UniProtKB/TrEMBL annotation:
This is NAD(+) diphosphatase. Keywords: Hydrolase, Magnesium, Metal-binding, NAD. Its EC number is 3.6.1.22. It comes from Sphingomonas rhizophila. Its cofactor is Zn(2+); Mg(2+).
């Protein structure tokens, strides 16, 4: 079977029950085994082996990530700007160890959220971290705010044994990937898939099926992978969203995924869920 999405591993015990018990979280901070994520250039630091780097807990606002085989893991808020553009860190993501990826995503997404939510959206007053860093409470009106996750559909469309892929202007030369877009308020996953495919490529689809999901911490999205059947092959490309869109055969996709020098396109990187979706399609498991 093809591998699971890169960021979709189990991670660690998030120990949600402890978040509501500040005395116990404080005790964990004093545990001699407690460690905190190291930061570098606004992202969790990696060693030469691609593993997350840890240090003794320090800082004013430690965020409780959970228990890693009984070891308390924390993160602090890094100095400076937290990146929201994945392109700045593609090289690092390519080195990140897969079993550390869920923790990387949690730490980065949480830091992004805290940096952006220092004030209450109800009354405008300052807020303070609460529940071990998994919420913020307003100093004035006591409103409690929780980290947000933005759902994004990313989908394959199939027609007569061919797969639709597109390329955005910022992609490296030759790269094609799955189309994607944010789920809008009041919209189902299935409706979002159909809408985005019609808006970007002008195709109508039926039989939308869920395949897999993956967190994407730039800044805090949940990528919801799906596949759908297109009712036709004619494309009307939205050039404000895409440079190009094309249908590819299974052999063409297989050649790209295996690194064939004569492949007709460059596939998504291994840490993108689009690659997982294509691997499942080539293997015949995306049905």
């Amino acid at each position: 079977m093809p591998p699971e999405p890169f960021f979709a591993g189990p991670g660690i015990d998030r120990a949600d029950a402890l978040r509501a018990r500040p005395d116990e979280v404080a005790a964990l901070l004093g545990n001699e085994r407690a460690t905190a994520v190291m930061w570098s250039d606004g992202a969790p630091a990696l060693g030469i082996d691609g593993r997350l780097q840890w240090q003794s807990v320090a800082g004013d606002e430690p965020l409780f990530l959970g228990l890693d085989n009984g070891v308390p893991r924390f993160s602090t808020l890094p100095d400076g700007t937290v990146p929201t553009d994945s392109r700045a860190h593609f090289g690092m993501l390519g080195q990140l160890a897969p079993d550390d990826a869920p923790l990387f995503a949690a730490a980065l997404s949480l830091a992004n959220w805290h940096r952006r939510h220092g004030f209450c959206s109800v009354c405008g007053s300052p807020t303070d971290p609460n529940r071990g860093g998994w919420s913020r409470e307003c100093r004035s009106c006591s409103a409690e705010h929780y980290p947000r996750v933005d759902p994004v559909v990313i989908m394959l469309a199939e027609h007569n044994g061919r797969m639709l892929l597109g390329r955005q202007p910022q992609y490296p030369p030759g790269r094609y990937s799955a189309l994607a877009g944010f789920v809008e308020p009041g919209e189902t996953i299935e409706a979002a898939v159909a809408r985005e495919l019609f808006e970007e490529a002008g195709i109508r689809v039926t039989n939308v099926r869920y395949l897999a999901s993956q967190p994407w911490p730039f800044p805090s999205s949940l990528m919801i992978g799906a596949i759908a059947d297109s009712t036709g092959a004619a494309l009307v490309i939205d050039r404000t969203e895409l440079d190009d869109a094309r249908w590819f055969t299974r052999d063409e996709v297989k050649a790209a995924l295996t690194g064939d020098g004569g492949a007709s396109f460059l596939p998504p990187p291994r840490f993108a869920i689009a690659r997982t979706l294509l691997e499942h399609w080539v293997a015949g498991s995306a049905s």
